[in-house]
Amino acid sequence: MGTKKFQLKKNKTLVIGTAATPTSADPDFGHSYLDSQLYTNMHDTMIKYKAVPYPWDERLAKMGVTIDDGHNFLPNLCESWSNSPDEKTISFKLRKGVKGHWGDELTTADTIYTINRGFEIKASIFFLFSSIAGLPSSKHCRVIDKYTFEFNIPNPTGVTLKLLCLPWIAHFDHLIAEKKASAKDAWALRWMTKNSCSWGPYRIKEWKAGKQVTLEASDDYWQGELKIEKVICKAIPERSTRVALLERGRIDIADLLLPQDIEYLWGKKGIKIMSTRSNGVYYLLMNCQMKPFDDIRVRRAMNYACPQQEIVSTVFHGLAEPMNSPCSPLQPGYTGEFWQYGYNPDMAARLLAEAGYPKGFEVELFFTDNSPAEEEVCVIIRKALKKIKVDVKLRKLSVASFNRILYKKKHLFASRLDFPAVRDPTYWGLWFKSHTFLNYQDLRDAELDNLLDEQASITDMNERMGISKKVQKRILDLAPMVFIAYPTTNIAMRTDIGGKYHVNPDCISYYWRDLEKA
User: Any idea what DSSP says for residue 172?
Assistant: First the structure.
């Protein structure tokens, strides 16, 4: 790593107060909000979306808030690319002279190492490319020369460029990764958990699990000098403490706050609020292969018993929209025209009786300690379901424990704040395709699978959006989840934080490199 020495200048150091430290620095394994924020700022992507003024709030637009637009692509680590007419071959030309966290130059040797690693360990890159982009193996990535590589895609879906905008698709420095590997850890999995070796603006300097992660600006960053030289992500579990420290100027940014915290801080001297729409969705998963949720009538009953408006007003304080589709309004092809589950506990009770549960049932509802709004939502859900004789026991878990249960589909009923990181129906549709990793509710429906296969085979976006509407209708009919809300992303910061607040709505994150501090 470089030898840059930092003087602890207050105007060069950004201190972020958050609920916990990230779970992993390895983008192939970490999937929480905090992980996403880390990857967005540790890694530069091959290409990127065009940044545009925030379109839904004139106040934020005037403050200089920008957002990734989701469909216009610009070069980033690559200087150019070309697509064959049949979209089966995409060629990329890397920028020359891009230096990484350890001073090495980016070349196609790093590209092929990264692709091979992802496919070998069966992690994020493997899943995204094989399931969504139609790239069945790492052999379909071919090196042409030191700076040129290409993807040969047998079954193109038109999503590859969008995937290459994701911070999870990080290029690793193969020279460093191979040095950190061992006979028992050929892909440096252990080292990657708390270290960085890529080409983004910030690199990890120190990792104290449960306390703080410190990052520093990369030496000779290819996009130029960074105004913020050091970022400290400090774990402050209590929201009230984060709020108090922000008010006193002890931290610069406070995130993972409840809407009432945002409401309290709004208009406070020295503080500004960034509340932006995201691609995120909040819902309750029901495992469709386990009783009683294997019965569609029970799943529909749970939706009729959900007081959406009460949750949006009392928990989110209006900083959310009621969910009326399985995808967010930011997704291409989104429609709310098929929504059918207005609050109707009498209808819910009748459906339960028809399904053979006139006296209701008992169920555990799992939720994490990562999202402060979840517990409040779950308390309201417990109270509402009691009206239809469903006895809910709440069970709070750490993110790691929750994810272990979720990934193995061992849950029955679980709270989930999710962010489909690709604005494309081919991606979020995999949440509902039989036997896919992202189908945490374990829904299996042949009619829906056929629609999803048809959708994935169409590369023209307008045609794909037409199929997407049919997909949304079918999912609402099947009711594999309790549809709750589209929450905004809210952070509070000191007014001396300037520069541009640039939002990635798909990963619910923002870019430190665009900020500066007076």
Answer: P
Residue 23 in tokens: 């779970």
| pLDDT tens column, 481-508 | 999 999 999 999 999 999 999 999 998 8
Scanning the structure block, which residue is given the tokens 């891009």?
98
What's the rounded Cα separation, in Å, for the pair 309 and 39? 34
Q: Which long-range contacts (CB under 8 A, 24 or more apart) does 53-57 make?
A: 54/276, 54/503, 56/277, 57/275, 57/276
Alpha helices in 76-212 (DSSP H): 108-120, 124-128, 160-163, 174-180, 189-192
Is the separation of the CB atoms in 505 and 277 below 8 Å?
Answer: yes
What is the sign of the dihedral through the CA atoms of 121, 122, 128 and 130? positive
The sign of the dihedral angle between the CA atoms of 253, 277, 319, 325 is negative
Identify the structural domains of the chain with CATH numbers, from first to last: 10-232+490-517 (3.40.190.10), 281-487 (3.10.105.10)
Work out the burial of residue 54: count CB atoms within 10 Å of its CB; fewer than 13 is exposed, 13-18 middle, 19 or more buried: buried
Query: Other C-beta atoms within 10 Å of 119: how many?
Result: 21
Residues 304, 318 contacting (CB under 8 angstroms): no
For the segment 120-179, what is each residue's pLDDT rounded down to a tens digit?
998 888 888 988 888 999 999 999 999 999 999 998 888 999 999 998 888 999 999 999
Q: What are phi and psi of 77, to 5 degrees?
A: -70, -30
3-class state of residue 203 by DSSP: strand
The residue with tokens 């009770």 is: 349
Q: What is the pLDDT of residues 283-304, one digit of tens each?
A: 999 999 999 999 999 999 999 9
What's the rounded mean pLDDT across residues 49-74? 94
Instruction: Provide the strand spans (E) within 182-322.
Output: 202-208, 212-217, 230-235, 253-254, 271-276, 281-286, 320-322
